[in-house]
Amino acid sequence: MSEQPPTRRGVLRAVGGLSAALAVGGAGVVAAASSARAADDGFGLRIVDRNENDPRMWYYRFATGAIGWNPGVNVLLPDGYHTSGRTYPVLYLFHGGGTDQDFITFDRLGIRAWTEGKPIIVVMPDGGHAGWYSNAVTSNVGRRDWETFHIEQLLRWVEANFRAYADYDGRAVSGFSMGGFGALKYAAKYYGHFASVSAHSGPASMRRDGGLVTHWANATSAALDLGGGTVYGVPWDEARVNADNPVQRIESYRNKRIFLVAGTSPDPINWFDTANETQVLAGQREFRGLLGNAGIPHEWYEEPGGHFVREHLFRRDLDGIIGRLRPA
Known about the structure:
This protein has 11 helices and 11 strands. The chain has 328 residues and is of the alpha/beta class. The longest helix is centred in the last third of the chain and has 23 residues, at 271-293. It starts with 8 loop residues before the first helix and ends with a helix. It comes from Streptomyces formicae.
């Protein structure tokens, strides 16, 4: 499959460009059931829609008090899952931001083909159009506690309903763009959860250039998800920014596999993606420098092009994830 850059024009239209964004922003192993249980099993989730007909891609939609609407999740099973009896490592894979991004983003890009024959479960949940894998400081549309949904509810539900390793060496987290930030954030903040972390064009520095990424998170969340509320508050909740900022959590990446990708070239069509990837590149370079100074190994790639998922690097990353985690 050829590389298909996800469009970000939905975000551009919603916030009126980067300058408008700045203005707004400143103001153990568990045996699986044959199919997932429908009732709330103590994780705060209740299945309201599901499809388990496809032999590999199983779909669920949940009611949860953590989110004011019913988020969806795709669970991509490895070939032979239903007959092997084996227990598998799990990759939690997060989509980017924008009105065209959701839990089926990676299915559209080709995740089935990329994982063919690979012994790993891939869990792809909703994260909001601009949820930033965080619990919002303020919301005018009800709860949008994505961090609670992913870490406290979904992860436990997956491990109770699928033959998935329920330990550090059995889990990886990765994502594109906003999802790459979410992966870096969760890997540091919940150190014992994930042995491998990957950010494909994901920002790694929230305070550089006057806090551009934090302003951007506030602006996009206000416009797309929170009805004028913000992820980090205005003024910022400084303790929360500190806790979420990858470059301020360097020691929390020690003994993990780390994989980073950023583009180096302007987007010939979409100037917004050019501005976006320029900031991603600068932040990842800052992050890599700090990792290097701390003696923390990491794998990184800078390639021509703008803000999109690079299939060949995703495939390389996937092989590295499988190599790092417990084998099925």
